[in-house]
Structure formats: structure tokens, C-alpha cells
From TrEMBL, chain A:
The lineage of its organism: Bacteria, Pseudomonadati, Pseudomonadota, Gammaproteobacteria, Alteromonadales. It comes from Brumicola pallidula DSM 14239 = ACAM 615. This is VWA containing CoxE family protein. Residues 121-141 are annotated as: Disordered. InterPro entries: Uncharacterised_CoxE. Pfam families: VWA_CoxE.
UniProtKB/TrEMBL annotation, chain B:
GO terms for molecular function: ATP binding; ATP hydrolysis activity. It holds the Pfam family AAA_5. This is AAA+ ATPase domain-containing protein. It comes from Brumicola pallidula DSM 14239 = ACAM 615. InterPro entries: AAA+_ATPase, ATPase_dyneun-rel_AAA, CbbQ/NirQ/NorQ/GpvN, P-loop_NTPase. Residues 25-184 form the AAA+ ATPase domain. It comes from the Bacteria.
Length: 393, 278
């Protein structure tokens, strides 16, 4: 039975390994939890999931799998009705029994329940709960209706447990959501990965001293790889206009990369890149920087990241004079090509959610110019773009 | 049997289960969560409730995995050799035991806290893989193998500053301490302030959760900050009515410095309160 659960988790792309699986089985073997589905849920989560970003996936997989288990029809013919009835009567007080009589007796109640169950099964296919919780219906897990049939949850707490994973309270930690205040740390960790590449040899003074000491005073030189940040970055931020809606996320990205890289330069542009960009957004009128100058100043080892929503009139990219702010002799596409020819490692991060991309013609054009290296500004998109940046051209 | 929290520490059911699973199966338990949710305290309280010794290994950015095992004090050996000290012939005299070694050779099963593992270098967890898995290591200088007498209870905390390698995570159990709900928070405060005035507690909790709910705050106040704040409120004998006074000229709650630790946050909160009053 648990093998299926394992594969269900894998199906939901949880990175659960066999050793962790064996740990869980071992834990069950040691009776860490016993016949308690909520306990099992927490135990399985503790043993199998090692990142709170994955909790939501786990909740979904768990609900999916246990929906199957829980909808085993308790009221099927296989369960002797007499047994069920005696079990039920244990839960009922005399007063409650009287009320049941008032409703036409237990038989009637059970019948109605069974019918309603069937109905509900039909209507709620794929839903994770059998019967509504709460409410005034006599049939429900949390209902306080005295006539209510409480389906044995006092013993195994199935229903309250379902709520734990059905709540999906870790939803906002899932990594495909957009970068938020909380997720910026996660993004930062991704960026750190590419700060660690690149190495050279240098004298390891500390190791040399201790080796020399070890060597009874005879000099023993030690070399070590230098751990410096070899990545050089150019960031081009789209500002103003439609980007105002995304300003917070861009700020967060900005602050994240800013602390992470030593060789980093920021430039601003509006909508599309033309002959000039600017370094200080306050003085964009006076202090523009020639794009040619950027190409000459920064070597091809610099990697370029463009951040913008790329939503504008298509003519702003494809026509001379298309810019909304000034007269451009050459088209934005030409300038983009120039930059991309020089900086082979380049990506475009788009704060627009990906499903909306195909609504904008300009975005398609830009995507083509970028040779499909446009990624959504989400944690996942950032990871993807980092991979692309690190690829050998 | 098992850990159920202590009189100073309220542990949620999930946390109890995670701790007990880790104790039973002798696996390290990795604890993550917002700062101030009692990650480090867990180890302290766990050792207290089990009556076990607590060994704390606080990790810094410069900590190396080797330091947890042992260190070879080559420099004092060099000095001793110059002075002709007889001790110099036995290399074992210059091996300084690390926390892991101490934990492995302890008489009684201890609790080992590896605090803030994410502060260390990115390779740090990988360097501890075998040691935490097999609970043994080899001392090259003296050619001896140190094997744990019994596997210590290992609690590892992380603040999420660096991602931990998968191979390391596979060997741990994991629990994410969630920020407590209001009811749990009341329990926690009952433990810390048994004699606090009921209405003050109510009002304080309300303003606390209000502050936490304000969007855009950079560092949300945590449990430990709430406790500090309440301590101040009690010490200054501030009446509950002050907290309730929403349309007072002073928009910020008294002694807000204990809750909001960032001037931008204070500024933002002030602005929001001002807007709310209009």
C-alpha cells in the first residue's frame, strides 16, 4: 500500500529517495505513530520532505492519495450493518437517540445518509471531502447538529486530519510563485550558485603555515583554489510606464543581486533599449550612456540580464523613431541585436506572468530577439535563467 | 515516553512527533522556521526534559566541519618541540576534541545542537555527511577510529540563508516551525507570564497580530520579540487601556522598539496607522 503512496509522491515531483522511504517504513515499524492518519501525515512530512517549499506539493500528493483511501465506502454492503449500528450507538446519548427516533429512526437516517453520500459522490467527483463539513446538514464531520451522524472521527480523526493538508497553508512557499518578500531569500540562494563558479590558484598562507609546522619547520607550500566571485553582470532595468506595477519585485531582485556580486553594473532603459541607457534614474534626461560605450567598456565575459515586461507597441521595437520618449535613428531591435551579439550570455527576466505573454505582440518579438531566453521573474524562472547564463555559448 | 514540550516550552503536535521520530530512529533533526520561533530553545528544552547533557556547537561563517571533530594544534606542538618538551613525541597531546567527538564518546546519550548550520560555508554540510550518518570518523594523526558509543540526539537549526545540499537533507528529518496561531501564542505567553493581567494580554496580542498582518514589513516581529515586549510592558506597568487607545495622538504602540527593529518598518507602520485613523 505504501509503495503506491511513494510513487504518488514521485508523481507530484517530490524529490523523495528510497532511503528516506525506508526511514518512514522503519518509523512505522517502531510505532512512532499508530493508527492515526494525522500523525502519519506529520511523520511522513518530517521524514520525506526536507524543504518547506515542497510542503505544498506534499499536501497535494497526500490529499490525492488519501482521497482514494478515505473514500473507501464505509457504508458498502461489505460492512455488516448491525456492527455499524452498535458502533454508532456507543456514540449516542439517550437524548440523541430520542431525536433520531424523531427523525424516523436510525434506519431512516442511515438510508438518507447513504443516499446523500451517493449523490454527493456524483456531484463532487475529484473533490477531497465526502460530505460537507459544518453546516446544518445532519451529515457532516464538524456539524454540531444533534441529529448529525458523525462518521466515527472521534476515534481516528480522519476528518480533522484531512483539513490539515487540505488547508495547504504552505501554498505561498511553493517555488513557482512569483518572487515575494519571503521568497527573495530563496532567489538569493539560487543566485549564489553562480557566484561560486570560476577558480584560480593562490597561495594558501594559513595552510602553508600549519603544513610547515607539521613538517617540523621545513617550508611546505600549499596552494588553494581562490574563492572569488568570477561572475560579472550587467543588469538592464526597464523603468516607468507599465513597469510601475512590478517595481517592488524588481527592487527585491535588485537588492538581492546587489549584495551578491562584486562585478556588477546597473543600467536603466524605458520599454526597449536604444542608443542610450542611463545609470541614474533621477537624472535620466542629462546623463545617458551610449550603448556603444557599454559594448566597448565591458568585455564579452560579462553576462547581461534584462529586466522588463516587454509590453509596448510593436513599433517601439521594429521602427526607427518608434520610441515614445525621443527620436531613435535605428530601431530598438537593431540595438538589442548589437548588445546580444556582444554579450553572448544574456537572459530577459519578465515580471509578467507567463500565461499572459502571448497576448502581447511586442513580447513575442522580444522573445524572438532573445532567442527564447526570456524567463518569468519567479524563483523557478530565475533558476532557469541562471542555468542558461552559465551554459557555454 | 517521548518529548511533549516542557513547562517553559510549548511544542506543537507536529513538532513533538518530529522530535520523537528523530529520537526513535536516531536521525538528526533539521529545524527551520522564522527567526524567533524557538528553534535553538528546542534543543535546550529537549535536553532538560530528557535529563540529557546538551552540547552546543554554534556555527559561524568561518567554522569548518573538521572543528566539530577535532583540531590538531600544530603550532603548540612546534613550540613545544623548540622547548624540548617531552609531550611533543605523542601527537595525541595536541589533538583537541570537537563537539562531535565529545558527543560520540559521552557516557549518556547527549543532545547535540548544531546551531545555524546555514551560516557556514556552502560545503560545510557535505563535509559532515559520513560523520552524521555513520556517527564515526577517523583521526589521521593518531590513526584511531572514533565510533559513537550511542548515537546522540542531533538537532540542527537553519535560518534558510543558504540552501543545504540534497545528500545532507536525505540523512536528516526535517521540520518547519510555523509561526504560532493566536491560541498557541496565548499558551506560550501563559507559560512565560503566568500572572499577567488578562486584558493586557488580550490587547497586546491583538496589536501584535495586527502588526504582523501589516503588509510590506521587512522583519515581522516574532514570538521572542513579543515576549520581550510584554516583559517591558509589565515592567513599565502600562495599563491595557493604552494599547486599546486607537485614536490616541500616538499611533505607535508603547515601547514599539521591541517589536519593530527596522526604521523603515516603523515609518511604514506609522504611516499606515495615520491613514487608518483618517
Amino acid at each position: 500500500m505504501l509503495i503506491e503512496f511513494f510513487f504518488k509522491l514521485r508523481e507530484y515531483r517530490l524529490k523523495t529517495s528510497i532511503t528516506e522511504w525506508l526511514d518512514l517504513v522503519n518509523a512505522l515499524d517502531h510505532d512512532v505513530v499508530h493508527a492515526d492518519i494525522e500523525g502519519f501525515y506529520f511523520l511522513a512530512r518530517t521524514v520525506l520532505v526536507k524543504d518547506e517549499n515542497q510542503y505544498d506539493k506534499f499536501d497535494k500528493a497526500f490529499a490525492d492519495y488519501f482521497k482514494g483511501v478515505q473514500s473507501i465506502n464505509l457504508f458498502d454492503k461489505e460492512i455488516p450493518e448491525d456492527w455499524l449500528r452498535s458502533e454508532m450507538e456507543k456514540f449516542l446519548s439517550d437524548e440523541e437517540k430520542k431525536k433520531i427516533e424523531a427523525l424516523g429512526g436510525l434506519d431512516k437516517l442511515m438510508e438518507t445518509l447513504q443516499e446523500r453520500l451517493k449523490e454527493q459522490e456524483k456531484r463532487h467527483q475529484g473533490g477531497s471531502k465526502w460530505i460537507g463539513t459544518g453546516g446544518t446538514s445532519p451529515f457532516g464531520a464538524n456539524g454540531h447538529n444533534p441529529e448529525g451522524v458523525r462518521i466515527g472521527q472521534d476515534k481516528n480523526r480522519n476528518f480533522s486530519a484531512v483539513k490539515v493538508w487540505d488547508k495547504r497553508q504552505f501554498k505561498n512557499l511553493s517555488s513557482d510563485v512569483e518572487i515575494g518578500t519571503r521568497n527573495i531569500k530563496v532567489a538569493l540562494r539560487r543566485l549564489r550558485k553562480f557566484a561560486r563558479t570560476g577558480a584560480s590558484e593562490e597561495l594558501d598562507i594559513k595552510d602553508t603555515i600549519s603544513s610547515t609546522a607539521r613538517n617540523a619547520g621545513y617550508l611546505d607550500l600549499k596552494m588553494a583554489p581562490e574563492r572569488h566571485n568570477a561572475i560579472k553582470l550587467l543588469l538592464f532595468f526597464d523603468v516607468g510606464g507599465s513597469m510601475d506595477a512590478h517595481i517592488k519585485r524588481c527592487e527585491e531582485l535588485f537588492s538581492a543581486v546587489h549584495t551578491e556580486f562584486k562585478h556588477i553594473e546597473f543600467f536603466y532603459f524605458h520599454n526597449c533599449i536604444y542608443e542610450g541607457v542611463w545609470k541614474d534614474n533621477q537624472r535620466r534626461g542629462q546623463q545617458t550612456m551610449d550603448v556603444y560605450q557599454i559594448i566597448h567598456k565591458y568585455g564579452t565575459d560579462y553576462k547581461a540580464i534584462f529586466v522588463g515586461d516587454a509590453t509596448m507597441g510593436p513599433y517601439e521595437i521594429t521602427y526607427p523613431g518608434g520610441s515614445v520618449e525621443h527620436w531613435n535613428e535605428e530601431t530598438g531591435a537593431v540595438w538589442m541585436e548589437r548588445l546580444l551579439n556582444h554579450f553572448e550570455h544574456a537572459v530577459w527576466l519578465n515580471p509578467q506572468p507567463k500565461p499572459y505573454w502571448h497576448y502581447h505582440a511586442s513580447l513575442q518579438i522580444m522573445q524572438e530577439l532573445m532567442k527564447n531566453r526570456m524567463y518569468p521573474l519567479t524563483v523557478d524562472g530565475l533558476t532557469e535563467s541562471i542555468k542558461t547564463l552559465l551554459k557555454k555559448a | 515516553m517521548g518529548f511533549t514540550g516542557t513547562k517553559n516550552y510549548i511544542a506543537s503536535k507536529e513538532l513533538q512527533l518530529a522530535v520523537n521520530a528523530a529520537i526513535t530512529l536516531e536521525k538528526p533533526l533539521l529545524i527551520k522556521g522564522e527567526p524567533g520561533t524557538g528553534k535553538t530553545m528546542l534543543a535546550e528544552e529537549l535536553s532538560a526534559s530528557l535529563g540529557a547533557d546538551l552540547l552546543q556547537w554554534h556555527i559561524k561563517s568561518t567554522t569548518k566541519a573538521q572543528q566539530g571533530l577535532y583540531e590538531y594544534d600544530a603550532v603548540s606542538r612546534l613550540r613545544d618541540s623548540q622547548l624540548g618538551d617531552a609531550r611533543v613525541h605523542n601527537i595525541g597531546n595536541y589533538i583537541v576534541k570537537g563537539k562531535l567527538w565529545q558527543a560520540f564518546t559521552a557516557e549518556k546519550r547527549p543532545v547535540l545542537l548544531i546551531d545555524e548550520i546555514d551560516k557556514a560555508d556552502i560545503e560545510f554540510p557535505n563535509d559532515l555527511l559520513l560523520e552524521l550518518d555513520k556517527m564515526e570518523f577517523f583521526v589521521y594523526e593518531t590513526q584511531e577510529r572514533i565510533v559513537a558509543k550511542q548515537r546522540p540526539i542531533v538537532i540542527i537549526t537553519s535560518n534558510n540563508e543558504k540552501e543545504l545540499p540534497d545528500a545532507f537533507l536525505r540523512r536528516c528529518f526535517f521540520h518547519y516551525i510555523q509561526f504560532p496561531e493566536r491560541e498557541e501564542m496565548t499558551q506560550i505567553l501563559d507559560v512565560h507570564f503566568p500572572n499577567i493581567k488578562k486584558d493586557l494580554l488580550e490587547k497586546a496580542l491583538t496589536s501584535f497580530f495586527q502588526i504582523r498582518d501589516v503588509g510590506g514589513i521587512k522583519k515581522k516581529p516574532s514570538t521572542s520579540e513579543l515576549i520581550d515586549w510584554l516583559k517591558l510592558l509589565v515592567a513599565d506597568d502600562i495599563p491595557a487601556s493604552v494599547l486599546q487607545d486607537n485614536d490616541a495622538k500616538n499611533a505607535l504602540p508603547p515601547l514599539y522598539g521591541a517589536l519593530l527593529k527596522n526604521e523603515q518598518d516603523i515609518h511604514l507602520f506609522e504611516k499606515l496607522m495615520f491613514m487608518a485613523r483618517r
